[in-house]
Amino acid sequence: MADRPRVLISDDLAPACTGVLEANGCAAEYRAGIDLGTLAAACQGAAGLLVRSRTKVTAELLGAAPSLRAIGRAGAGVDNIDVAAASARKVCVMNTPGGNTRSVAEHAIGLMLALLRHIPRGDASMRAGGFDKKGGMGNEVQGKTLCIVGPGKIGQETAKIARALGMTVIGAHHAPTAEKAKAVGMELKPLADALAAADIVSLHVPGGGGTKHLIDAKALAAMKKGAWLVNCARGTAVDQAALRAALDSGHLAGAALDVFPEEPPPKDDPIRTHPKVVCTPHLGASTHEAQDRVALAVAKQVADYLVRGVVVDAVNAAALR
Question: Which of 140, 262, 263, 289 is catalytic?
Fold first, then answer.
């Protein structure tokens, strides 16, 4: 129907989200992978916009889309959306903070195991025709102390899996309530104390200025000699130069990184080929299950807001009043 609010889907979301939009009173326009140079024109007349991380919702884009009333981010982070500009325009920005929780937690644990057991090195040896058993001597995670830096929903889910693997779990920074921490068997400590006590540190902090270079040279020096670092949060949370120095000096035994300050990182970035680093290209939320969940959830949220005025998981709810 012509009076249905039109919602543009500009990124690769599960196609089933169009059915959710249509069933809830919206007209869906699926343009996944649309050239970003023509996105502003496509947004003309649209009341809603659904994105993942590829689409950058800038102040300029918002200015070119006067009909826009809602932006839905299929995922937790909204780094690619100018929330301040959207708030100034009274555009509701919604995310899906819980949809990819399990997927990211599992990826963090997977990276941890790959790092400590040298799985990528063993795979590379076999593919090259070798059989390097000696070089693949690793470490168990059982009995190790894991520090969850940023024990929110994803951090707490990571803690549950880690506890099942026989690890001791401590939490620091952006801590949950003591009750939530206790429920997943996590002891809370100040950041410096937690870093010093941990064999493995896993980052689960949000993006933004408050966490930029949270793990800097001082924080890395506070970690145990021979400790490991895992980052499935935001690339900017780690000072990359300080990390390389800690790896080169032998202070850290290794690092596993799913996120980078610039994505994709430059091809000549030494972190890509560092012998003590395991890298994946931001795969934390990249499971079929998680992408289905967040796509369907954000479609319903945007439709509910546009058709019924219901606000769910808006990151700028205060600005809409």
Answer: 263
Position 256 scores a pLDDT of 98
Residues 34 and 109 in one domain: no
Which of 52, 234, 244, 293 does the annotation list as catalytic? Answer: 234
Amino acid at 260: F
| Catalytic, out of 282, 288, 293, 308 | 282
Torsion-angle region of 54 (φ positive above 0: left; ψ -120 to 50: alpha; else: beta): alpha
- CATH number of the domain at 32, please: 3.40.50.720
pLDDT tens for 162-171 read: 999 999 999 9
Taking 70 as the pLDDT cut, the residues of the chain under it are 1-2, 174-176
pLDDT the model gives residue 238: 97
Query: Residue 219: which residues within 8 A CB-CB, separation 6 or more?
Result: 191, 192, 195
Please indicate whether residue 127 is annotated as part of the active site. Answer: no
Q: Is residue 1 domain-resident?
A: no
**Which residues constitute the domain of residue 206?**
101-279
State residue 257 phi and psi, 5-degree precision.
-125, 130
Burial 120-141 (b: 16+ CB within 10 A, else e): ebbeebeeeeeeeeeeeeebeb
Number of compact structural domains in the chain? 2
Quote the pLDDT of residue 175.
Answer: 64
110 shares a domain with 50:
no
On whether the CB atoms of residues 298 and 73 are closer than 8 A, the answer is yes
The answer to whether 234 is a known catalytic residue is yes
- 103 in Cβ contact with 292 (< 8 Å): no
What's the whole-model pTM score? 0.86
